[in-house]
């Protein structure tokens, strides 16, 4: 099979998966959720300081970081957990594999379609806030905000890769959904608590750069660091910034780490799916 034909097969599968998400209004629903929450945070995030509306681009992004860390990984995991195991339970997986398509093409095609739906819903959900920030702070605000939205998309794609891996490994949809929720709970809620507990329990002996680089084992923390180090005001809001070495502030290295979180689970999933 030629590379052009391989891309054509994946493109057809991705387009079908994307159209299905548009047809069942999944993209619209997620975009509305993002829009509503992001506008609420933008306008009322500074209410405790007696001000309504965005005070600065830095504080607005710092407020939106928490929304993204909790919401986007959960949405990505719920979107992709049944990508493969769902087809298997419905009996359509064997039918798809009977077509002139490889397992790798099937896996990547479904991932690309889901990724396109997740990306569109994320960008659309944050678009209205971009207009508000442009009106308040001018075009310069869109540079930082654009980087924040891009890092949000990468975070979603990383958790979508993890969801597809779970979908390949799980025996049924029930187990896949349970594993997806457990993974969200572990990476978003528990991981940082365990690291901080380790730091306290060892009296600070386990710390420094070794401790900081453990954060790279969690894509949610990579996203947080990307946005903490990109803005001076955000660094002051997070005590996490005080324990991170300057090398951790390199946007290129952190972006590469996030891309590794996207590619790594997909490589494992493709290997396991073909086994």
TrEMBL record:
Keywords for this protein: Membrane, Transmembrane, Transmembrane helix
Keyword Transmembrane: yes
Cellular component GO terms held in the UniProt record: plasma membrane
Top-rank taxon, per record: Bacteria
TM stretches of this protein: 26-47, 59-81, 111-133, 145-169, 181-204, 251-273
GO MF terms held by the record: ABC-type transporter activity
Protein name: ABC-2 family transporter protein
Organism: Hydrogenophaga pseudoflava
């Amino acid at each position: 099979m030629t590379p052009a034909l391989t891309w054509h097969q994946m493109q057809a599968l991705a387009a079908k998966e994307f159209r299905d998400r548009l047809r069942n209004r999944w993209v619209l629903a997620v975009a509305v959720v993002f829009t509503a929450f992001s506008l609420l945070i933008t306008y009322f995030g500074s209410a405790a300081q007696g001000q309504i509306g965005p005070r600065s681009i830095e504080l607005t992004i710092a407020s939106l970081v928490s929304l993204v860390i909790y919401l986007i990984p959960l949405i990505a995991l719920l979107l992709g957990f049944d990508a493969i195991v769902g087809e298997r339970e419905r009996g359509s997986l064997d039918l798809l594999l009977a077509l002139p398509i490889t397992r790798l093409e099937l896996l990547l095609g479904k991932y690309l379609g889901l990724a396109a739906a997740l990306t569109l819903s994320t960008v659309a959900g944050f678009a209205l806030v971009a207009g508000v920030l442009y009106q308040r702070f001018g075009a310069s605000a869109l540079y930082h905000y654009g980087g924040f939205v891009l890092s949000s998309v990468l975070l979603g794609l990383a958790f979508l890769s993890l969801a597809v891996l779970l979908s390949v490994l799980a025996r049924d949809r029930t187990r896949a959904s349970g594993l997806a929720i457990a993974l969200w709970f572990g990476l978003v809620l528990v991981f940082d608590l365990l690291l901080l507990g380790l730091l306290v329990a060892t009296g600070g002996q386990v710390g420094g750069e070794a401790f900081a680089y453990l954060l790279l084992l969690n894509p949610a923390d990579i996203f947080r660091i990307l946005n903490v180090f990109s803005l001076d005001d955000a660094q002051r809001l997070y005590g996490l910034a005080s324990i991170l070495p300057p090398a951790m502030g390199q946007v290129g290295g952190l972006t590469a780490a996030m891309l590794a979180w996207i590619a790594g689970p997909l490589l494992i999933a493709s290997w396991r799916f073909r086994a």
